[in-house]
Every structure is written in structure tokens, then in C-alpha cells.
Amino acid sequence: MMEEQTSRIIKTNIEEEMKVSYLNYAMSVIVSRALPDIRDGLKPVHRRILYDMFEMGLKYNTPFKKAARIVGDVLGKYHPHGDASVYDALVRLAQDFSLRYTVVQPQGNFGSIDGDPAAAMRYTEAKMSRIGEEMLNDIQKETVDFGPNYDDSLQEPLVLPAAFPFLLANGSSGIAVGMATNMAPHNLTEICAAISAYIDNPAIQLEELMEHIKGPDFPTAGIICGRSGILSAFETGRGKIVIRGRYEIEEAEGGSRDQIIFTELPYQVNKADLVKRIAELKKATISGISEVRDESDRDGIRLVVDLKKGAVARVVVNQLFLHTPLQTNFNVNNLALIDGRPVQVGLIDMIKHYVMHREVVVERRTRFDLRKAEERAHILHGLKIGLDNIDEVIKIIKEAEDNTVAAAKLMTRFGLTDIQAQAIIDMKLGRLSHLETEKILNELAELNNKISYYKDLLADQAKILKVVQTEIQELSGKYGDKRKTEITLEELGGMNIEDFIKEEDVVVVISNRGFVKRVPVDEYRSQGRGGRGVRGATLRDEDFIEHLFVASTHEYVMAVTNHGKAYWIKVHELPVGSKTSKGESIKKILPLNDGEEITSIINFKDFDEELYLLMVTRNGVAKKVNLPLFRNAKTRGITAIILDEGDVLVNCELVTEGDDCMIITRKGKGLRFADSDVRAMGRASRGVRGIKLIDDDEVAGLLKVSDDRRILMITEKGQGKQILFDDFRTHKRGTMGQKIYTFRDKTGFIVGALAVNDEDDIVCITSLGQSIRIPVATISLQKAYASGVTIARLKKDDTVVALARTDAEKDEEVVEESEEDNNESERTEE
Q1: Does residue 57 belong to any structural domain of this protein?
Q2: CA-wise closest residue to 570 among 519, 513, 515, 508
Q3: Is residue 426 part of a domain?
Q4: Between 600 and which of 262, 560, 707, 799 could a Cys-Cys bridge form, CB atoms 3.0 to 4.6 Å apart?
């Protein structure tokens, strides 16, 4: 007996045994519990719940069933673990604050955003939602592989057909052994558009995909701050996404105090805990808070923070973002199972594997449909033979001893198979009528058409992909919706840097050789018309100022280059300089390529969907592009316009629907046209003809027509005038326009044009670096045939090369300089 027990003892190295056993356990957790399959986006427990509900017939249009019955069925058939784990998974599939698109439709208490748990499973009920049914479409057509359940008594699907891209739309989270996954949800409309674009072009770049999928779209909405985390997550599968709650600042009753009202919270933030946290902070850390109340109801979230008298709402908001989960980080870690192995995946990989899965599903479905159609056609073909020879068939059956003999004689007589012969024997006499016979023939013809279609589909992989694309587009049409989560461009490093930067106007100066600086506006003191001016910049090697404009420190500056690329930067990121300083090379700030030079600059507050960038080149080509298409331009630049050889960009204007614009040429033509004449285009296109040029004329400027402004033009020899927009009627684009300036020997051709009023000053920069600031009110308003007045008296060989508009200096007295004073000033400088 002792010898028998000794023989059953296995001697092994304990270290090796622990290693192997732990690895087996770890892989079991990874593959069978914690990580989703990249194809259907589901963990085993979720897949088993949905399949069991499908087997129970719990479709969206059927009555609800008790959750306890569903959980018990899943436990008994497929998932031999604790009932709490199954019920928790079922509850999450039904929570509209946990999933962007719920696949289970709940009835009863399924928990709340305050962290309240769901009611016990004996009280709640559930069934599949309409979009949940899409996960199981065609599963009975042998589209996916099945395997044995835990006790080999049943078969369960190893993956679902997943006509709905669950992983991309709802994301996933889970903790395995030594690894974890945290995948963000996205908008279904955007996902379907991206999948369709990928099918059209499998070599599509991430930048192009991001024109469809803007970023995560959380069920609780909120605001994503910045795109760097999104780009990192899409590229590598890892990235930090900063989410803030949405708020409004309102006056409380009485008007002496403000209220901060939060209507959207970051994803997975517990509202009840948040209220407690704010209540704790008001006692010590945040002194400006008077009271916090949760006024949320079934219509939505409303978290009210009352402020004390004199408290600054913006400061309190920033403190709340700093100290509470009203600003949180969603750390993306896209880890999913590919062929049973955990793999880090980016956006392109997720779309590629989903498309590959759907391609397999459609192919297997088509093969199943083809087989069934051929089997049915085979039977109908036999029935047709029987109907064509019905009298003889009836005679054979009547004379036969039994059905087996009759079937054998039919097979011998008409060359039928056993299935066909049996179908003829089983045919009811009622089908011998003319109408029933016609139905059989019509069904056979229809099946033959289907068989041809299925064979054609299976013979061409491109056609299968087209079916996948069509189905995903139909899914978007049925279930697609608008984004909930807004994405802003401000990158946050704990707090927004602009919270600590004073918003003020500055003059941005960029020289021809690429030196840039920002200078306080008040450094340009006002002078009288005809003044000599003061030194505006220290320039070397025949450099001259090419771009000069006024902008707020919180605004964006977009530069479009001679290569047709666009870059943007915030004004406060530009180097600070004085009026006489050289500035810094723009190549230290923007990643310009060799030979790439800035040809046009614009500034704006935000990437508004209603804004368009209207561009005009020196050769008169016009192009209009929606401004948000340039959101990705900061890091490495993106295409703005395709330029003809030898052409350059002259100017850009931000326009909205209904605006009129004017193109002004160097030789005195002005064309007023509606911006709608130039259709909106994508970034990588050439544009259309804006104005017809003759006699080697070139475009000098582009202006947006404004009722409270006038046109101001400056010539290269310092002459200038104002003229009304109303002096010009609207023409179609591509025409020559009207006369706008009369030239004489002392004028030279037009250098540039601005839209101005009496509240403005203009700043002129000459090729020798002189700057002159003149009040617009001192410049004459004239007609088209006038040649203007002297704006600036220039030295020999000096010319005007740039001009910009700024606010008038009303507090400073404007003194007219006499001719004698000007001459004396010139002698002094010399």
C-alpha cells in the first residue's frame, strides 16, 4: 500500500512549477476574462450574455424577461462563475452613462451616475436593444466558429458576427495579470465614415482617418482639451486625454453674485462623490464658494456652485478643475486580443481587423446562402420535372407497392436524385393547380438569379468588401448620431497656460527673411499724415518687413507658405521684441522646410465651423476652405492650396456665408464678388479663377466688404486714398472688375489695401525699415479716378512694402508736421 502511494508522488522543482502554473493562470485571465477580442470587441462574459439572450428570443420587440432568469441561464449554460459577475456585466451593457451605445435595454433600477448600485436581479428586467441585435445578425448562417462550453454539453460562439463595431464605439476596460486595457468610446457616425474610407483606400494615412474620427466621444459628453493625447492614442494605442466638465456662468437672483452651473461631467466621474468633494473644498481650499447643490433630474445634469459676493468665477472654475474630478485624465491603453494574443493597437489596426472580420463574416454568410439556395433550387428543379410529367408521375406512384419503390422508379425514369424523388412524392395534390405551378417556376427563377449573384460575389474579393462598406453605411444611417463630446484645441498641462497670460493686442511683425516678433501696440506712436516716421526694426542684408498685423495674445496666427502649406501658432507663443529689435527666426518656431517661405498670414479666435479661409494668389486664383480643416496644421503643417508654378499667395480672409469680398490689383482694378461664387473645397486642390488679369497685372490685395468700413489703398511711392465699398457693384468672379485707382508718375502701383474706418490707425513699413503710423481720419475719401494724397514722404530708393491696421490712439494728440519740419527731420537723420 505504501509503495502504491509513493509511486503517485511526482518530484518536481517548486520554482519551475510555480512559474508554469502562474503563467497558465495569467493567460487564462488574459484570454478568458479580462481582455476583449479585437473582432467583436467583447469579453467572454459579454459575448455569452448576448448569445444567451439571442437564444432566449429576447429581441428588442419582445417582452422583457427577469434579469435573474437571464443570469441563471448564462451561468448554467456558458459561464460557470459567480452570479454577481454576470449580473454586473449585464448591468453595464445597459447603462447609458457607461456605454456610448447600449446593447441591452433595461427596465427597472440599473444604477445611476451617482454610484448607486442596480437593484437586485430578481427585481430588474432586460432584453436586447436594436443595436444589440446587430451584434448577432447572421450568427445562424455559419458565419462564426463555435466551440464547446465548459462541460462539453453545448456549443457557444467563439466570436460574434458584430455588424456593429462594438470595440470602436463603446471601448472597453479590464485588468488582467500584469496588463490592463482602457479603450475609449467613439461616435458611430464618425466610425462608419472612417471604416468606409479605409475600405476605399487600405493605405489611408492616420491624418486622413482623423478627418472622419475627431476623437473619443463619451456617453457623459464633456469637453476634451487638446488633440495631442488623441493623436498619440490613435498612433500608438496609448495616450492621455484630458476631459473637463461643461459649465456656464450665470448671475444669481439679485445680480450681486455669480453661479457656476455644470451640465456635463467627465466620463466615469461619480456625481455624488464630486458634490461631497466640492463641499469639502469650500471650507478650506476654495474660499470663493458659498454653496454647492445638485439640481439634476431626468432631463439632465445640473450641478450648481454658488459663489460668494466679489468672487471671480473664472478663478473658482480653474480651482475646481485643479482640485476636483471636474478635470480628469482618460489614459488610453488599447490592448486587445488578436488570434488569442494581447496586442497594443492603434486606430488603423482596430479598423483593419474589424474590416477583416466582417469580410470573413460576409464571405461565410454568402457561402451559406449559396448552399441553401442550391439545395432549394435542386428540389424545385425536381418538382419542375415532376410537374412537366405529372400524369406519368402519378401513374408510377399509384402502381408502386410503397413510397420507396415509387422513389426508385422516379429516379430511374427521370434521372432524379433521392432528395428530388422524395420531394415529388411528398408534394401535395393542391400544388398541381396552375397558380401553384407558376409559383414554383417563379421561385426557381428567383433562386437561379440569387445563385448567380452569390457566385459572382464569392469570385471577387472587392465585391465582398463593397458589401461590408454598404452594410456599415446602412448602420450609420440607422443608428448614427451627433457627437456628444466637444474637442477644443487648447492643450492642458494641469491648467491652461492662457489662464496666466494677459489678453492684450500686440503688433506681429515678420520680415522677408523670416524673422518674427510681437511688439506692444503702444510702441507705435501716432504721427501726422506725411510724417517721416521712426525706425521700426533693425534690418540687415537688405531684409524688409513683409507681414505686419495686430492680434490678441490669445488668438491663433496661421501662416500659409509658398509651398501651399499652412501652420498655426498662438500669438503668445511668438517671441517678444521691441520696435527696433530684429526678432527670432521663424524656423525656430515653425518647422518650415528648405526653400519654404511664408506668403500670407491671418489671425483668428477659434476654429469655428462657420468660418472659411478665402485665399487669392498673385495670378488671380481664388480658393475657399472650411477653417476647421486646418486644426491639425500646428505640428508639421498641412496642405492649404496647390499653387501653379511661379504663383504665390497674396492674401487670405476669413469669411462666412453671405459675405462679399473685393480683389484689388496693382494696376488699379477692383472686383467685388460674393464669396458664394467660390465653392468650398478640400485642402489639397488648386482653386478657381478669382479675377481676370490683363497687361501683366497682379493681385495686390483681398478685402472682405463691410458696411462700417472703407477701402484704403497705399502705393509703393507713399500715395494713398480711401474709397467706399458701395462705389463698386457686385460682379461674377473671373471677370475684370472696375477701375479703382488712377496712376501718375508720383504714385507708383498699389502695394496693398485694407478695410478701415475712422477708429483705426494704419502702420506703413518701408523697404528700408521705416515705420509710420497715421490716423485713418486724416486720409482723404476720394473716387475711383483720383490718385490719392501723400501718406508718407520717402527717402530716395525707399518704397512702401507693407501696411497694417490698428486701433487709433485717441488719448494722444495728433500733430501735423509741416514740410519744413519734414525737411529738417531728414537733414538731421542724414
Answers
A1: yes
A2: 508
A3: no
A4: 560
